[in-house]
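Async update (no meeting this week)

Hi team, since we skipped the sync, here's where things stand on the single-chain job. The sequence we agreed to prioritize is pasted below, unchanged from the tracker. I ran it this morning and attached the output directly underneath so nobody has to dig for it. Comments welcome in thread, and please keep replies under the output.
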Amino acid sequence: MNARSVGTVIVSALVALMVSYLVVSGAGDRVSRPAVAPRAETAYERVIRTGILRCGYSPWPPYFSLDPNSGVLSGLSKDLSDVAAKLMGIKLEYVQITNGQQVQDLNSGKIDAVCGDGPWVISTIKHIDYTRSYMYAAVYIYGRADETRFQTFDDLNRPNVTFTGIDGDLSSDLVESNFSQAKISTMASTTDPSQLMLNVTTGKADVTIIDPLAASLFIKNNHGKLKLLITQPVAVYGAGFSVRKGEASLLNTLNEAVNASINTGAAERVLKKYDPDGSLFLPVATPYRRP
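Output:
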C-alpha cells in the first residue's frame, strides 16, 4: 500500500469516527432533554375558568332531598351551599356520589368539592381537607318509643345491645369507637338514612345514632314510634365543604365564602328556615354582626 492509499484510509477512518461521535452526541442530547408535559389544571383553576364548581352530594333527607319524579334537589345543605356559591359568584353543578366515596371522587377529578361535608368518619381527615363549618350538628342515640332499658352510655356499651349503622357514616364509626362492646348491624353506603330508624322501630336493632333533623322528619311521619333516649350528644360535627388534599387555593376560596355566608347572616337565615326555634343546630357565632 502506497503513502497515498494509507492517507486515504486514515482520513476515511477519521471521518467515520467524527460522524459516529456526532450521532451519539446528538442522541445523548435528545435523551437528556425530555419533553416537559404540560402542568395539569387544578380544581381551582378549572372553577375560575368555567365559573362552575362540580359539587358532590349524597342524598340524605332533609339535608339533600332528591325528588325521584322531578329530579329536583332541595334541602338544608343545598341551600347553605347555594348561598356560599352565590357570594363567590359561581354556579354549583351538583353531582350525586356514594356516601363514603368522597376521597376517590375528589382524587379522580369527578368532582371539585363535596357540599355539606364534614369528617363524618374521622379517618377521612388524612385524605381530605375541610373548610370551616357554617353550622354544627350534634348526633344522638334514638330508640323505640317504649324503650326503657337505656339511661346512660354505659347501658349501651354491652354485648346484648345492637346498633344499626350505614357503612362510611358516623352511625357506624361512632359505634366502633364509643360502644365497642355492643353489636352493630351495618347496611350499604347507598342506604337511605330513614332505614336506620326503621330498623329500630321494627325491632331489627335496639338503637341508632343520627342527627335530630333527620330524626324529627322520621318522627313527624311515624308518630309515636321513635324517641331520643339520652339528651347528651354522642358527638358534635361541623358541616361545610371538602376538597382534595392539597387544593389550597380552592380550600381558601371556599373558606372565605363560608365566612361571608356567616358574617352577612345568610347562613343563619337558612338555618332558621329549617330550625325555627334553634333547637336542632349550633350556629357559628360571629362578633362582626349585631344581633
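Quick observations from my side:
The chain has ten helices and 13 strands.
The first strand starts at residue 52 and ends at 57.
Reply here if anything looks off.
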